């Protein structure tokens, strides 16, 4: 199950709506091993495409170096689909390289840049196998234990 | 001539879980061959055969001292003692 706080959930949805019809992408980092998505980082889709996303290679390195310095890892890797359902594409599955992450898919196909509900779903993608999981949106993540 | 190589989570199955390993080589290609000798299977995840000869896989990024090796000659990129190499899979999809 993915536990995510309302503000981060809303920020991911807002990013997806803003970048529609191109795919939006980013991560939510958290302390290593904590499974807590605490720090959202919007990334530029270097592909600038409605059907593909890719983090820019130098921004990718900067992002990971920052996470290593803070003992963080990508807890959530998110991107949007703008014309299809919020389910990992074959390309998504083939390129998924963070077996510990929650892969969040948001679909903006219904309302585009406008107000309105989106599909927001989460998956584990390990060795080419996709497992959907429940998303639990909470007011705030509970205090760290 | 030692070069430290940072290994991403997904490839740590080849390094016994190690986050970083040390290798040797005057070029990135030679370094990868040296790593392969100690960590069999790693090379295939980094390099693929192409018409013009072996090349880095499209969705694997390798950096030498923070510079993407695609701008340094790819597998031909020269290495010096103490260089820092980072391997990061692309974060990408459709």
From TrEMBL, chain A:
**Which SUPFAM superfamilies does the annotation name?**
JAB1/MPN domain
Q: Which InterPro entries match?
A: JAB_dom_prok, JAMM/MPN+_dom, MPN, VirAsm_ModProt
Q: Which UniProt keywords apply?
A: Hydrolase, Metal-binding, Metalloprotease, Protease, Zinc
Q: Which residues form the MPN domain?
A: 2-126
Q: Does the keyword Metal-binding apply?
A: yes
Top-level taxon in the UniProt lineage: Bacteria
UniProt-listed PROSITE patterns? MPN
Tell whether Zinc is among the UniProt keywords: yes
Which PANTHER family does the record cross-reference, listed alphabetically? CYSO-CYSTEINE PEPTIDASE
- What protein am I looking at? M67 family metallopeptidase
List the source organism.
Nocardioides lentus
UniProtKB/TrEMBL annotation, chain B:
Cross-referenced InterPro entries = Beta-grasp_dom_sf, Mopterin_synth/thiamin_S_b, Sulfur_Carrier/Prot_Modifier, ThiS/MoaD-like
The superkingdom listed in its UniProt entry is Bacteria
Instruction: Give a Pfam family name.
Output: ThiS
Q: Which PANTHER family match?
A: SULFUR CARRIER PROTEIN CYSO (PTHR38031:SF1), SULFUR CARRIER PROTEIN SLR0821-RELATED (PTHR38031)
This one is known as MoaD/ThiS family protein
What's the source species for this entry?
Answer: Nocardioides lentus
């Amino acid at each position: 199950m993915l536990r995510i706080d309302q503000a981060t959930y809303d920020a991911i949805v807002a990013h997806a709506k803003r970048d529609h019809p191109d795919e939006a992408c980013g991560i939510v980092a958290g302390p290593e091993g904590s499974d807590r998505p605490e720090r959202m980082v919007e990334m530029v889709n270097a592909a600038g495409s409605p059907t593909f996303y890719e983090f820019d290679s130098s921004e990718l390195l900067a992002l990971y170096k920052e996470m290593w310095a803070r003992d963080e890892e990508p807890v959530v890797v998110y991107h949007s689909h703008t014309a299809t359902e919020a389910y990992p594409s074959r390309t998504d599955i083939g390129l998924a390289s963070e077996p510990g992450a929650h892969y969040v898919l948001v679909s903006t196909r219904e309302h585009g840049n406008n107000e309105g509900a989106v599909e927001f779903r989460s998956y584990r993608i390990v060795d080419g196998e996709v497992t959907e999981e429940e998303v639990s949106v909470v007011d705030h993540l509970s205090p760290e234990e | 001539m030692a070069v430290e190589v940072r290994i991403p989570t997904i490839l740590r199955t080849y390094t016994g879980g190690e986050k970083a390993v040390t290798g040797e080589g005057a070029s990135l290609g030679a370094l990868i061959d040296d790593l392969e000798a100690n960590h069999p299977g790693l090379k295939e995840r980094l390099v693929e055969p192409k018409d013009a000869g072996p090349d880095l896989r499209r969705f694997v990024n390798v950096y030498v001292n923070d510079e993407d090796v695609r701008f340094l000659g790819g597998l031909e990129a020269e290495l010096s003692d103490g260089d820092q190499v980072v391997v990061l899979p692309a974060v990408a999809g459709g």
